[in-house]
UniProtKB/TrEMBL annotation:
<feature type="domain" description="ATP-grasp">
    <location>
        <begin position="102"/>
        <end position="285"/>
    </location>
</feature>
<feature type="binding site">
    <location>
        <position position="181"/>
    </location>
    <ligand>
        <name>ATP</name>
    </ligand>
</feature>
<protein>
    <recommendedName>
        <fullName>N5-carboxyaminoimidazole ribonucleotide synthase</fullName>
        <ecNumber>6.3.4.18</ecNumber>
    </recommendedName>
</protein>
<dbReference type="InterPro" id="IPR013815">
    <property type="entry name" value="ATP_grasp_subdomain_1"/>
</dbReference>
<keyword id="KW-0547">Nucleotide-binding</keyword>
<dbReference type="Pfam" id="PF17769">
    <property type="entry name" value="PurK_C"/>
</dbReference>
<dbReference type="GO" id="GO:0005829">
    <property type="term" value="C:cytosol"/>
</dbReference>
<feature type="binding site">
    <location>
        <begin position="173"/>
        <end position="176"/>
    </location>
    <ligand>
        <name>ATP</name>
    </ligand>
</feature>
<dbReference type="GO" id="GO:0046872">
    <property type="term" value="F:metal ion binding"/>
</dbReference>
<dbReference type="GO" id="GO:0005524">
    <property type="term" value="F:ATP binding"/>
</dbReference>
<dbReference type="GO" id="GO:0006189">
    <property type="term" value="P:'de novo' IMP biosynthetic process"/>
</dbReference>
<dbReference type="InterPro" id="IPR003135">
    <property type="entry name" value="ATP-grasp_carboxylate-amine"/>
</dbReference>
<dbReference type="InterPro" id="IPR011761">
    <property type="entry name" value="ATP-grasp"/>
</dbReference>
<comment type="function">
    <text>Catalyzes the ATP-dependent conversion of 5-aminoimidazole ribonucleotide (AIR) and HCO(3)(-) to N5-carboxyaminoimidazole ribonucleotide (N5-CAIR).</text>
</comment>
<dbReference type="InterPro" id="IPR005875">
    <property type="entry name" value="PurK"/>
</dbReference>
<dbReference type="Pfam" id="PF02222">
    <property type="entry name" value="ATP-grasp"/>
</dbReference>
<keyword id="KW-0067">ATP-binding</keyword>
Length: 360
């Protein structure tokens, strides 16, 4: 089976690494000349709206998926005329737009921060008056890793903020005084079978995920599964989806969903019976889903800007290095380490060792 992937970054690369043992081959459509997934398959270098090359991709593969939500929903809709595409264009349309996303959560009874649609500075002024400060203003689309957003703490921060974010459609969200950030990675098959990985505790630095630790018997696991299950059913979703939550007052408030394999699920490569990448491919290809059970205690740490010396990373016991083959650049995700240990005490000690390398 040949899988077409829209996007050729590290998520597509890790997808191909998981799919190759299943007898799958891959073609990646990405405009970047140095797309890091190209080492794992054919690279069709073209813009995501280039219909001639999209048609070429469709003609070459058995089905198409995508590795990030910046892909236009129109691209997926176009491809769907010629080849099966999972997740669907409608799922992508909603997940890539924060207003549609938050509105869906509200309709499904999933708690969210207060939010408002912002189409102008006047809209922003009115929303701040209604929601109050502090608040977070975000572009409705194309924001990730802390990009495309601004925290508004004082009235002076509101002045000119709409223009500062590019005078594009935005959403204002009330600030959430959370006690923790967690995410749930789930996978849903074509026939509706659904499986959930353990809730993951996340720590972000400057808006970018730095550390994820898979939980054991988290008290909010069932609630998170309920909320995620509602979304998966509503979207008739196929593939892996990640849902990020805030822990608030012993419950959960929705932050956002990602309609794809997710950074907070990288620990599953070594830390689960079947990784998020393999399960995504199983789901879209119509294969039986794999077990999402943990294997020991696991964590993931991102490498931003550069990967520490390989010999130093792999010298740490229980540590597995994933180098993306990307050029080093400040702030860029260029690799990660996953840790798998037998107990949480050892895991925390290993995390400290990796963090020392990152800070060195």
């Amino acid at each position: 089976m040949k899988i077409g992937v829209i996007g050729g970054g590290q998520l597509g690369r890790m997808m191909a690494l998981a799919g190759t043992p299943l007898g799958m081959s891959f073609a990646f459509l990405d405009p970047a000349p140095d797309a890091c997934a190209q080492a794992l398959g054919e690279h069709i270098r073209a813009d995501y709206s280039d219909q001639a090359h999209l048609r070429q991709l469709a003609d070459e593969v058995d089905l198409v998926t995508f590795e990030f939500e910046s892909v236009p929903a129109e691209t997926v809709a176009f491809l769907s005329q010629f080849v099966p595409v999972y997740p669907s264009a409608e799922a992508l349309r909603i997940a890539r737009d924060r207003w549609f996303e938050k509105s869906m959560f509200k309709d499904l009874g999933i708690p969210t921060p207060a939010f408002a649609d912002i189409q102008s500075q006047a809209d922003l002024d009115a929303a701040v008056a209604a929601i109050g400060l502090p608040a977070v203003m975000k572009t409705r689309t194309l924001g990730y890793d802390g990009k495309g957003q601004k925290v508004l703490r004082a009235p002076a921060d509101v002045v000119g903020a709409f223009a500062e974010l590019g005078s594009v459609p935005c959403i204002l969200e009330g600030f959430v005084p959370f006690t923790g950030e967690v995410s749930l990675v789930a996978v849903r098959a074509r026939d509706g079978e659904t499986r959930f990985y353990p809730l993951v505790h996340n720590r972000h630095d400057s808006g970018v995920l730095a550390l994820s630790i898979a939980s054991t018997d988290h008290p909010l696991q069932a609630l998170a599964e309920d909320y995620v299950g509602r979304v998966l059913k509503q979207l008739d979703y196929v593939g892996v989806l990640a849902f990020e939550f805030f822990e608030v007052d012993g419950g959960l408030k929705a932050n956002e969903i990602a309609p794809r394999v997710h950074n907070s699920g990288h620990w599953t490569i070594e830390g689960a019976e079947c990784s998020q990448f393999e399960n995504h491919l199983r789901a879209v290809a119509g294969l039986p889903l794999g077990s999402t059970a943990k294997v020991g205690e696991s964590a993931m740490l991102n490498f931003l800007g550069e990967v520490p010396a390989v010999e130093k990373v792999v010298a740490i016991a229980d540590c597995h290095l994933h180098h993306y083959g990307k050029a080093f650049k400040a702030g860029r995700k260029v690799g990660h380490a996953t840790l798998r240990c037998q107990d949480m005490t050892t895991l925390k000690a290993r995390i400290a060792e990796v963090e020392a390398l990152i800070k060195a």
